Amino acid sequence: MGAMNTIAAIASGGISAATGRFQASANRVVSDKNADLAAEIVTQNMAALAFKANLKVLDAARKMDKHLLDILA
Description:
0% strand
């Protein structure tokens, strides 16, 4: 199960990074009147997609852990 913990850790890191990118972009939009809104929308959409993808990885790792435990039981 060590590999599953590594996968979950990587996915959690990806979620944290995506959240940070989204927040930084949102802060730029709010604080910088000259912010490139089109670029910030793209940045926010990419961060949201990365967040969702990492959630899928966490879900897959959870399911694989469950199946492994079922096999071992």
